[in-house]
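Revision sheet: structure tokens.
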Amino acid sequence: MSRCPLVLDTIHLNRQVRATYERVARAPASGFHFRTGAAYAVEQLRYDAAELAALPAACTERFSGVGNPLRIGTIPAGAVILDHACGAGMDLLLAAKAAGPQGRATGVDLTPGMRASALRAAAQAGLLDRVRLHEGTFEDLPADDASVDVVISNGVLNLAPDKPRVIGEIVRVLRPGGRLFLADVVLDRELAQAARASADLWASCIGGALTEGALVDLLTGCGLHDARITERFECFAGTDLARKFHGQLHAYGANVLASRP
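Predicted:
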């Protein structure tokens, strides 16, 4: 299901998602259906502990990704990067560092609290000369056509009601030969229609998640090339969500590489 069912209350879904991530921005340790923070990123998602220790807590404490898109490939020196729904900016700052002084990293996010955290972290890290933050949605990215070398996305495609539109925007902003480093929630089987129609399940990162095959087919069908899974992560291990679906459904994180022809 690359588009949401017609019966899904997308307005309710959007409100739930915004409220959840505003709470992550305000109180990142208050408990969610997903894990947060630097220790989680290192232990479950294979981030480098020393690299995260060098970043401001303003971004690492609020990290809530499901994979590690920066393990998918190398960020070239001088690259133009767009972090698609960047949250508090942990991946954004890591990418900006990798691109070096001549690079530019733009974070796009709808949640004011997350954008404020990312901007604060960029200032504390001394990266404001190469990092920009913009309000925006993943259906309408504030970037010119064919202007980006690498798009990063971590844990947000599953929340999109219209996934082909979101991927179409990524294709639009990527330069020919540009790459998508995508991490997202995937499922081991297709969900029933009733589950797909639940805004609560969508907001929990399950209702809108795809199987690996469906995700690769979506990327390919939207015009990206050589889409493939590169790594998997047990991002929900130990959470209430994992306990809720134990033995019925396996939801996990996957890194996916694709490129624009």
